[in-house]
Amino acid sequence: HAISCLDHPHICALYDVGQQADTAFLVMQYLEGETLTRRIERGTLPLREALTIAIDIADALDHAHRSGIVHRDLKPGNVMVTKSGAKLLDFGLAKTFAVTAPGGLSLLPTASANLTAQGAILGTFQYMSPEQLEGHEADARSDVFAFGVLVYEMVTGRKAFEATSQASLIAAILEHDPSPIRTLQPLAPHALQRVVHQCLAKRPDDRWQSARDLVTELRWIVEAAPESSVAVSGRVGRWREISIAVTGLAAGVIVAAAAAWFVPRAGSRPVHLAIPFDTIATIAPVTARNPLAISPDGQHVVLSALREGSRHLYVRSLDEPTAREIAGTDNADSPFFSPDGQSVAFFADGMLKRVALGGGTPQTIVAAQEVRGASWGADGVVVFPPTFTAGLSSVAAVGGPIEALTKLNTEQKEKTHRFPQVLPGEKAVLFTIGPTDVNSFDDARIAVLSLETRRYKVVVRGATFGRYVAGGHLLYARGGALFAAPFDLQRLEVTGAAVPIIEDVAMSTQFGAAAFDASANGTLAYLPSSHEAVRSHVVAVDRTGRREALLETDALIQDVAPSPDGTRIALNLGAANDAIWLFAIARKTQTRLSFRDGDSHAPAWTPDSRYVTHGVSHPTGVASDAADGSGRSEMLFTSDHDIVFCTWSPSGRELMYQESNARSGWDLWVFSTVDHHRRPFLQTPFNEGDAAFSPDGHWVGYTSNESGRDEVYVRPFPGPGGKSQVSTAGGSVPLWSRDGREIFYRRGASVMAVPVHAGESFSAGAPRLVFAGTVASPPFAFRTEYNVTPDGRRFLMIERQQSGMLQHVNVILNWFEELRKHAASAR
Question: What is the Cα 280 distance to its own chain's centre?
Fold first, then answer.
């Protein structure tokens, strides 16, 4: 009768009490849902859901306590989870009644009839306060203790007190404290750990003194944590389900922050998390790069992410609700951690740099023209490929001279050596041998280099992005899936069959980077593939920012170069082996121009609009094709170094292009069509590129990072003479107006214009904004990502649209246990 007086939205209503013949009955509210016990059996609850249920139950307890009723048997089986919230069931005895002695606890009214005697005792004892177990009177603070045990189980997936016998369980409750919540659920807020810890105090006087205090504290925790700070759900299932459980949180696990290469104990269950990067526009796409890295201790994830068309590095701690930007990481890509996890290295603006994780000014390590991965060994040496066509080299992480480690074997059709990983012990390096065809990885190989003999051998064929993980396995990517094979670190050999681990990992469609990383203590982070279609557009934007769509395609457009006569646009389409296509503006038709093996890129028109020259990869050099499709493709010259972007002088006698060098970075070279000789135009320790001739051919605009960031400069051609800076506050990719009175350049997503005088001498006025943010395309290595029409009235821009862009990283804690299970199933 006392309980029937409780009227609360989170207490199951008791409408009547009666007796029919020899049968006593209760008339109770009908509820649709499941018990909290069943819900926990399906997997650890998301923090947001667990906190919501906890607030409902604490509020119900507060109402009961104010009405003079103590529940005494609070446990998951006595909580129903319904669509309208949690409901507290089956109260024990009213406070005015006598307290049942410990010897009768197995006969409590709420004991489930289908449990064994031992199960009934354990199922009840595990939520009993110390004073109840000692036979003392229970009060509201006893319910507070049980409430702490219940919340602990919801959040971690484990019972706070466990034992194999009644005696040892009672001893555990009376004498021991459970493991802190955050050792089992790293995403749990510090405040929640404090709340539960105080609930579980042994002495009632040391606990929260009322359920109302709990309601206040829990509501504050929810309000302090953003909705997106924890995105979790569901169960640990088969490995196929794991790749689909983007927002999955499985049962709890002890994540040990132990020494490097620590392997967690067998039997610990994996935890699946989706770590939101909610402060960012979108995670940078996987092109030639891996945008993701995880610290050796598994506590921090660093991402290269896009905001307003510009890449930066963001770091997210697993126990913090939001990500923060790492200052000074403009245009940063392919991050990787130092062995101690205190610093992050990355590629930006043709340089390999490092920065403290906590912030500070980035330090340049060495020039590195191509982003193809790097690895920081425990001996303080970084291994990286300095250029696209070079082998691996090493350099001290503090900077200094570089040392060549490998050389490409052209007889074995080795195109690149990339994605290195220094193996434990610093005696060997794992790396990927790039395929001949950049669009197919059937002939990609994973090799291991002995730093003692400087010889390397192939260990896996038809795979890319190899990574060794503690416990003796080699991970690698193939066809968008992640595989694992047993690997002997002493013999440097694969010793068994590979098994699939995750089916859906984001990969570069061109260069084979796979977006995953593993910590030393058993945490795996990866990006799932995005299956949404990417649409590329060529748009014409006038000086007011008004845009007109010219071309839309499912292929990836990476270059746009209008012909001097204004009738066609040369495009590099990411289809048909990255060929050069011509788009007729008036007829809206496109025709393939280049048919060479390998990729063709960076098209440039001759001044008479008769030929299109472009970079090629097999062999590396520059080729020329007649724009009308007649005749054979002609190779103008070849080079042992990477070549990107070409531009013709107005006379048609000189072709200027960018060429990489392991020591001097990107340099500007000139090819003469008169004597067919090549010579450097500008070769410095800095990176120069994006060259553009003035209409009279006497001046060259270009981009250089000599000031520490990209700026636009102008020099006389063919020289000699000094330089003049044109841009301010950063700039790249200069273009001249047809009359030579303006220079346009890019500043992030904006287009700037500078009035100039280019006669016997050169002078520049103040930059002004032409338009901002109309089209924001990711920065690429080729300056033909945008261009100006011959009449100077409009700008040709590339726009890419992809729905469902990723804004989270999948993280699996203690995933070594899954790896063991998959390996065992393959045997």
Answer: 11
